[in-house]
Amino acid sequence: VVFPAGVDEVAGCLRAASEWGVPVVPRGAGTNLSGGSLPIEGCLVVCTSRLDRVLQVDPVGRRAKVQCGVTNEAVQRAARPFGLFFAPDPSSMKVATIGGCLAENAGGPRCAKYGVTLNHVLAAEVVLADGSVVELRGAEDGGLDLLSAFVGSEGTLGIAVTADLRLLPTPRRRRTVVAGFADLSDTMAAASGIVAARVIPAALEFIESGLLGVIAQSSPGVFPAPAAAVLLVEVDGEEGEVEHDADLVARICGEHRALEVRRARDQAEGEALWAARRAGYGYLARVSRSVPTMDVTVPRDRLVEMIQQARELADEHGLDLYAVAHAGDGNLHPAVPFDPADPDSVRRLDDFRWQLQTACLSLGGSITGEHGIGVEKLSGMKLQHSDEVLGGMRALRTSFDPGGLMNPGKVLPAGGGAW
Amino acid sequence: VVFPAGVDEVAGCLRAASEWGVPVVPRGAGTNLSGGSLPIEGCLVVCTSRLDRVLQVDPVGRRAKVQCGVTNEAVQRAARPFGLFFAPDPSSMKVATIGGCLAENAGGPRCAKYGVTLNHVLAAEVVLADGSVVELRGAEDGGLDLLSAFVGSEGTLGIAVTADLRLLPTPRRRRTVVAGFADLSDTMAAASGIVAARVIPAALEFIESGLLGVIAQSSPGVFPAPAAAVLLVEVDGEEGEVEHDADLVARICGEHRALEVRRARDQAEGEALWAARRAGYGYLARVSRSVPTMDVTVPRDRLVEMIQQARELADEHGLDLYAVAHAGDGNLHPAVPFDPADPDSVRRLDDFRWQLQTACLSLGGSITGEHGIGVEKLSGMKLQHSDEVLGGMRALRTSFDPGGLMNPGKVLPAGGGAW
Q1: pLDDT 10s digits, A299-328
Q2: Contacts of residue A400 in chain B, CB cutoff 8 Å?
Q3: Which residue of B has its CA nearest to A127?
Q4: What CA–CA distance (Å, rounded) separates B303 from B329?
Q5: pLDDT score recorded for residue B73
Q6: Rounded to a whole number, what is the distance in Å from the CA of A372 to chain B's nearest CA?
């Protein structure tokens, strides 16, 4: 494991690895949820944690230049005094690095409104497999769009060392609305009604009963009384617009038979609701041996079916399921505790994972939303994509890294290997 | 020239061309401004104009599935009854095809607020050089992002035949503000002030005196009295927000010594201003032999310098210059009439074009904004990009099209040719 302190050192590591034929596994904070940053046999791990400086914030141009080992949170901190923020907000944002956000094309609750990392990166300085350093800029910069090809490539095309990020004006107001429902279909109908009413919420979270039970234990009294599901909605923007949207959201939830609708009185009460939602996962992690959080996406109008199928599959395999969905874009995250020391538990989890992917594809969805492919979903790739598309991805990868030394066995099988 | 009527026929054309080693030039409506759709010696032109159907509008999922020969305007027409629109708005949108918008990653006045085509395409069915048909979806779909690599590739990676487009809710209100200034720097300071005040205008057009003179002739009385430059600003959104933003825009223009600030009374008066701005270019085209519209981008705070340098260069070469800039993203469009039948006029234009590109790069800019590279800016590519980046683009192109038959000589030199 090497900890290079600058671009030259990253380039030197990759040049040496290339000469010696040693595979390279890039690593930021290691918060990745699909195993993309896991070391492989005989590899060199290149950890970017020392590249941790915000180099510049340009409030007029609304952009920041940062080293890629800096955390997402540090970028937010640097942007805040100028009334700006960086839109991607993965749950791991306190520790996740910008390099990792680029590698995974990270999203988060507010990405349905603001877009994913791809939409907020203007340029990246990247070290390629042979140690050469290239500046990749977007399509507007002329020629083929190597930057967009790079974002989301999970360390298989190179290591980003510096990035120019787009910053957005922080909305003047936010307001959180929470509503509990007795029925999943009513919950989703309310979510669809909010979208159809042309509100674009900053977040539209669908929390099902399993996770609600956990939240009730970890943060008692914060969420509405027992319900089959809860919608946690945040609207942001100008003052008048926000109050208008919050009223509309509350009314639509009421029209869809909400058991209880509560508008946070102020930003602090809103933040308490979000903190409770995040703390639910933390509590779950503390009381379980291991809790993988999965990541499948279906068209928004199939989300209830997806949740129901996920629950049936979990029951079938004797697993517990705790789920939240970003209802705006149909992205479901089932957390499924298991015991990694127990082969039977591992086998049941693997079967569940495979059947979950198959189910989401049969609903017209995708085996990933914002966690990437890594090693977790490698086998699902051949379910999702045609041979031609997989061949195209392989050709793209080879065009950046002819020797196949960058993060081999992630996203695509290592070398020219079969699936 | 072939006019295939469906995906199978496009695939058949490319399969045959591939077998016979015939280069293929894809063509939509031919509105491209950098020559990407111009035929080359001995090529097969594949024109997509018969693929002209909107296949589906899904108002709940806010997306449309269209054949790629359909016009941008037809998509807007199909979306309008649902209160939705497709964000990219190139000036040619009445006739430009969606396939062309994908190939050029088209933008338009409102792209500084809403983003370019890349941000609004969810999937594309693409015929590759060998006639195979692949479905490319975005990064969220898992694996390497071939869709983003394809968008903006100017016909060098394949031909898009079907596209899934993102639609946005039409803003409830728009308001246009126009302000005339005696000084370029004041004009730009006002534009920067608007951005700094955290207004995100739907359009922020900077029109300099040359084009203002033309507009005064083609649409007398619509624009403010003689000025060095005019800002034409459109804000959109919810009612309260729009009035607030329009007030703020007007006040900021006043604070920067505007000679006259006028708020359009209603949407019709706003549209008259935009129609006059577009008609200016039309008038210029009618009274000139040929008017290439160029396309360079600089950081927003260098736009005044860029305009001044463009004017000096035009004077030096005895050329007239009529320019508009999208001030939000520093994208300048000088229109420079010349006489294609006069070798001296052609030489002066070429010299001007080359020096304009050099100047914009020395200001930290890009030789293109939204018109692509095509053949017009092929030689500028080596000014802008390092050999490594150009090599990466060539490798990417080869990975899609090993035989180099798709639109050769556009974006990059044909074959492995030198610059």
Answers
A1: 888 999 999 999 999 999 999 999 999 998
A2: 392, 395
A3: B388
A4: 9
A5: 97
A6: 6
pLDDT, tens only, A349-385: 999 999 999 999 999 999 998 899 999 999 899 899 9
* List of chain B residues whose C-beta atoms are within 8 Å of the C-beta of residue A112: none
Q: What confidence tens digit (pLDDT) does each residue in A135-176 have?
A: 998 766 788 999 999 999 999 999 999 999 999 999 989 999
| pLDDT score recorded for residue B241 | 82
Q: Provide the Cα torsion B310, B201, A119, A58; round to 10°.
A: 70
CA distances from A394 to A397, A402, A404, B327, B396 (A): 5, 10, 10, 40, 11
Task: Using an 8 Å CB-CB cutoff, list chain A residues near B303.
Answer: none
Task: Tell if the CB–CB gap between B240 and A237 is shorter than 8 Å.
Answer: no
With CA atoms as reference, the chain A residue closest to B239 would be A241
**Predicted confidence (pLDDT) per residue in A6-15, tens digit:** 999 999 999 9
Alpha-carbon separation of residue A370 from A107, A120, A122, A383, B142 (angstroms)? 6, 15, 20, 18, 9
Residue B324: the pLDDT is 93
Smallest Cβ distance to B393: which of A144, A148, A198? A144
Q: What is the pTM of this model?
A: 0.88
* pLDDT for res B415: 73
List CB contacts (< 8 A) between B392 and chain A.
Answer: 128, 134, 146, 399-400
pLDDT, averaged across chain B? 93
Nearest-by-CA chain B residue for A387 = B134
